[in-house]
Design brief:
Elements: E1 4-11, H1 22-37, E2 44-48, H2 52-56, H3 61-69, E3 75-79, H4 85-99, E4 105-111, H5 118-125, H6 141-156, H7 164-174, H8 188-193, E5 196-198, E6 201-202, E7 212-220, E8 229-239, H9 254-267, E9 276-278, H10 284-293, H11 302-307, H12 324-328, H13 332-348, E10 361-368, E11 373-382
Parallel strand pairs: 2-3, 2-4, 9-10
Antiparallel strand pairs: 1-7, 1-8, 4-7, 5-6, 8-11, 10-11
Helix pairs in contact: 1-3, 4-13
């Protein structure tokens, strides 16, 4: 397998794009990535998306977007892995280029979530859970995460307010990201007084959805002349049971542990070598669990990293440096590609006030379902 590099990136601001269609927001990100790469044609197109058949009434997104952006004749497919769809598409494209089957690939993560009422979108998101044993019983994703968070607090003795630093950090970083949905400073007081959604998860524990698209172009590393060269040092995926109650330990993200372990081995690094971690903070409890499963904290101690201010861009383990899902926003099928784009920005030194000083190795972890499918990618700067 040959080494692969990311040549171009593109993204749009996450929000409620009532005036734009699914094809338009995906096309904007794709064209931005092609312009950044200095290319007008690629050999293949991979689209990460979860909800388009239900929310937008559109399937076959590979051809849908290849037609829109003028990539006729090339291979074009949609990849779905719930909220992990963006990273799943990136991994599929990576394997195609690394194998030598194609010389270039465009990956687009895209989701249009405002075309249906909120209750309909919530029901659509629930299709990533176990339809027979979770959804049929009337539980939503926020409900599932609330149960996990309540048990975690009970087992390890944390209070709800101890999770506030995760959300506060994400909001502080999003203030400096023009593509983020929420440009609002968050205080401990506001976090504490926020409306309850599903006890103990309140509004400030949860990420906002929205319309969004992010894209990247990957090619063989030997063909990249721009500096710094950003190579994909590792790509790993793992799964767990789709239903949380079927797991031996519901408070441990086994798929995060397995995928990060494989990624570290592939890249020849350890957690101590990672300069920044774009984790999947769909809910604040997931931030703590991801840090623990990926080797940045001991079991039950992920919350401590936030309380000790070790997760800021100047901290020991910078996370969600561009706002994360909590403040950048979570257009589900696009989120994994936003994470990839943001790691590239950090390694290029393009993040302004949230730039991690001397960043050379970054990790992105995208989760589908309640930890059922997890993708971990490690990017490095190379000579």
């Amino acid at each position: 397998m040959r080494e692969v590099a990311i040549l171009g990136i593109g993204q749009i601001k996450i929000g409620e794009h009532w005036d734009k269609s699914l094809r338009e927001i995906g096309g904007e990100a794709a064209f931005a990535a092609m312009q950044d790469a200095g290319m007008d044609k690629v050999d293949s197109l991979y689209v990460g998306n979860m909800l388009s058949p239900i929310v937008s009434g559109q399937n076959q997104l590979g051809t849908f977007f290849s037609d829109w952006i003028g990539l006729w004749k090339q291979e074009a497919v949609k990849v779905e892995a719930a909220c992990g769809s963006g990273a799943a598409a990136f991994r599929a494209a990576l394997m195609a280029v690394a194998s030598g089957d194609v010389e270039s690939s465009l990956v687009v993560g895209v989701e249009k979530m405002t075309d249906k009422a909120g209750r309909d979108v919530t029901a659509s998101l629930a299709t990533a859970a176990d339809a027979d044993y979770e959804v049929e019983q009337g539980i939503s994703f926020v409900g599932i995460n609330a149960l996990v968070m309540r048990r975690y607090m009970h087992e390890f003795g944390w209070k709800h307010d101890d999770f506030a630093p995760f959300s506060i950090n994400s909001h502080a970083n999003a203030m400096h990201n023009p593509y983020a949905r929420l440009h609002e400073k968050l205080t401990v007081e506001r976090f504490e007084k926020s409306s309850m959604v599903a006890t103990p998860i309140n509004l400030m524990d949860a990420s906002p959805t929205g319309d969004g698209a992010a894209a990247a172009i990957i090619v063989p590393a030997e063909k990249v002349m721009r500096k710094p060269k950003i190579v994909v040092a590792a790509s790993a995926a793992a799964t767990d049971t789709i239903a949380v109650h079927s797991r031996k330990d519901p408070m441990f993200l086994k798929a995060a542990y397995e995928s990060s372990k494989r990624a570290y081995e592939m890249a020849g690094v350890t957690p101590e070598d990672i300069d920044l971690f774009e984790l999947h903070d769909a809910f604040s409890i997931m931030a703590a669990l991801s840090l623990e499963a990926s080797g940045f904290a001991e079991r039950g101690q992920g919350v401590r990293l936030g309380l000790d201010n070790e997760i800021s861009p100047q901290g020991r383990v910078p996370v969600c440096t561009r706002g994360g899902l909590k403040a950048r926003g979570h257009p589900v099928g696009a989120t994994g590609m936003y994470q990839i784009v943001e790691v590239v920005q950090q390694l290029r030194g393009e993040c302004g006030k949230t730039q991690v000083d001397g960043a050379m190795i970054g990790m992105a972890q995208n989760i589908g379902g309640s930890g059922a499918t997890i993708f971990t990618h490690i990017l490095k700067t190379a000579a």
